[in-house]
Amino acid sequence: MTRAVRCPLDRIVLARRELAVRVGLVALLASGLASGPATSDAAAQACRSAHPHVVLELTGDWPDGERGAVTVELRAALEAQELELCLTAPDRPVARVRLERLDERRVLVAIGDAVTDKRVERTLDLSSFAPETRSLAVAIAADELLRASWAELLLVDAPAPAIEPPREVRAAVARSVPSVVAVEPSTAWLDLVVPLDRFGGGDLWLGGGLRAERWWAERVSLRVGLGGRGARSRSGALGDVLARALVAELDILVGVFGEPERGPHLGVAAGVWTAWVSYRGRADDGSLDVGAARESGAVVAPRGALFARYGFGPVRVGLELAVGGAVLGVVSTQDGARVTGSHGALVQATLAFGVKL
Q1: Which of 173, 211, 253, 286 could form a disulfide with 221 if both were Cys (CB 3.0 to 4.6 A apart)?
Q2: Is the dihedral of CA 24, 29, 30, 32 positive or negative?
């Protein structure tokens, strides 16, 4: 079924400098291309080419010479797209263009698009154009409306074309629609981090690691991290307790001010800090594996953070402060007495050096 679409009037702005050269040519050709047998014959011959055809119909009361001038201008615009303009066509055209002069200042531009099986119309007001430029304005309006109708072919959820679009039609659409390159609001970053983690249960962790983050939206990023930690030894009744941890991090970042690449970048983060913690005892004589001090387990601590970075293009430096609490922790004991542990409240400060990937 044919679908009717009515487009709003778009104002066509024509620069006089660009028109000056073309107006002379139009004036010379207009007298010989006024409506008559010669014009019809020439148009019919043009339709014998192998290029797709567009049929033109001019109705209404046009000023002397303007019919031929519009035909010349529109034919020139379509020839640049490897399309042929005809007054008659020996086979099915890809489109029919009807230009109806409604009155002294208005022209109805109607497109019957065989490719997308729809009609598109617009009314062009010529009162703002000088008389010598009106034929060009009408031709441009018709050409633009025709390509706008074909632009439906670019839509992902558009209906299937009524006929297979010729190569020339697809090329015309591709040229008329500006290329859109998907530019991500930010990029991926890899950070070398130097963290300081303090648990209320007693442990003070120092270490390092790597973090990778990707900004999937303008101000939203997903970050993952891996690293190692070590805590200073704690003395118990049977000797010292040594602590080591393997850390994994997962956070969502939201930028509040600035951009990741240049200048200051401020934001907040929320996520979870996890670690596998291992405690080992060391006797006074230096031997390890003091039985009462051997413990290991998982630590899980949700956290929230504030971050501040400064970007220098491909590199950046940053500082992050986070607070959280362990919902799952580990305690180290000797002879039933607690020596230290990774549990309770968590406070973190992290210095980061990043590079854009």
Answers
A1: 253
A2: positive
Distance between CA 139 and CA 142 in Å, rounded?
5
With a CB cutoff of 8 Å and minimum separation 6, the contacts of 121 are 4, 5, 6, 7, 108, 109, 110, 111
Structure tokens at 336: 């039933």
Distance, in Å, from the CA atom of 141 to the CA atom of 146, rounded to the nearest integer, reads 9
| Residue 309 to residue 265: CA distance in whole angstroms | 5
More confident residue, 184 or 61: 61
The closest alpha carbon to 59, from 106, 100, 7, 13, belongs to 100
pLDDT digits (tens, 9 = 90+) for 7-51: 433 433 333 334 433 434 444 344 343 444 444 444 444 476 778
Contact by Cβ (8 Å): 279, 296? yes
In tens, the pLDDT along 288-347 reads 544 445 678 999 999 999 999 999 989 999 999 999 999 998 887 766 667 778 889 999
Question: Phi and psi at residue 151, in whole multiples of 5°?
Answer: -60, -15
Per-residue pLDDT band for 178 (boundaries 50, 70, 90) equals low
**Domains of the chain and any CATH numbers:** 3-176 (3.40.50), 188-356 (2.40.160.20)
This model's pTM is above 0.85: no
- Is residue 286 classed exposed, middle or buried when 0-12, 13-18 and 19+ CB atoms within 10 A define those classes? exposed
DSSP 328: B
